[in-house]
Amino acid sequence: MEETSFLNKIMLDLRATCRYYTGFPKDLGPSRVIHFTSEREFVQLLHQGHPVVVAFTIKCNLTKHLDKILEEAAAEFDPHVKFMRVSYRGLSLWELYMFLM
Asked: Distance (Å, rounded) from C-alpha 4 to C-alpha 7?
């Protein structure tokens, strides 16, 4: 019988205990993260009465890890908490400034 290596034991422990470990592929189904399109849509989302988590990101290779974590959290808390992503590439600086004010 083969003994598992120390690294494999650590990886197995991580997968068993870490809630948002994104190194192991998961089937999350369709995305539950809402993409920001207009201020009106955001206000309607707030009036639904659910807490809203807003992530301001620049769409690039460096934010892929954050995107995976958002997807996992949105899949877990979907009916009770809404997750929204505001991507800087789709907005002008003025629109982003007005959204924050």
From this structure: 8
Distance CA 34, CA 3 (A): 45
Alpha-carbon distances, residue 51 vs 1, 2, 32, 93 (angstroms)? 51, 49, 14, 26
Q: Which two tokens stand for residue 13?
A: 């422990």
Name the H helices within 19-63.
39-47
Q: CA 66, CA 97: separation in Å to the nearest integer?
A: 22
Give the global pTM: 0.61
Q: Tell me the sheet residues that pair with 84.
A: 34, 54
> Which segments of the chain does DSSP mark as H helices, in order?
6-17, 39-47, 64-77, 93-100
Q: Are the CB atoms for 83 and 53 separated by under 8 Å?
A: yes
pLDDT score recorded for residue 25 = 65
Strand pairing class (52-57; 82-87): parallel
In CATH terms, the fold of domain 31-100 is Glutaredoxin (3.40.30)
